[in-house]
Amino acid sequence: MATRAAKRPVKAGGDWRGAIARFLRRTAGLILLAVLLAGLALWWAARWTPNRDLYPLQGVTISADNGEVHWGSIKAAGADFAYVAATDGASGVDPMFARNLAGAREVGIQAGAIHRYSLCQLATDQAANFIRHVPRRADALPAVVWLDYDDRCPDRPTRALLLSELATFLAQIEAHTGKRSLIAPGPSFESDYRVTQGIARTTWLRRDFFEPDYGAHPWAMWQANHYIRLTGADGTVGWNVLRPEGETP
């Protein structure tokens, strides 16, 4: 009489090893998918600009971080205007400011200067720095005062003191330029100091991909994307739009 072949015992180790292998394969697949999605998001962010039909006038923010800028390429990318980093606090000067200003004008891009305001230095000293390095020109765009926190400056003055100093700074640089300046507070700075309520100036607000609404009154200029990459500039640039004249939000 034939005897049945004895069943081989199942090795317990085989089950958990197979489970681990399947888990690792699934995890690797999910990681690869996440990497691909992140790469796609970065690719999209580096190219996105607001609709030209809604915002016909668009431009860039440029600084020394963008290296040797080829302004013809910037114009070809669709920049109608440019704001160029100029001065910082009481003594800082962007090393590429003069070259960027001249380069933009050479290709027919109207340009303006940006001053990064410091909470740690006197308004009069900062105004002297701006006046010393930013030339008065009838064809220049109004200057912009960039208001944001800086790791180099731990000071946090009272709102009353800040508004008083900022008013002094604006009065002095506007006497030099002959034009009223814009103020550009970041979201956190505006939340703490409510500058747009206390200083009657045109505002430039910032928020990537979505219109900003943190000012006391509607923005005139919006930095819509600071991840833009353009042929002709190293790294990323800020991409800005002007609110069309007569448009009410």
TrEMBL record:
InterPro entries: GH (IPR017853), Glyco_hydro_25 (IPR002053), Glyco_hydro_fam25_subgr (IPR018077). The chain crosses the membrane at residues 27-46. Coiled coil: none annotated. This is Glycoside hydrolase. Keywords: Glycosidase, Hydrolase, Membrane, Transmembrane, Transmembrane helix. Belongs to the glycosyl hydrolase 25 family.
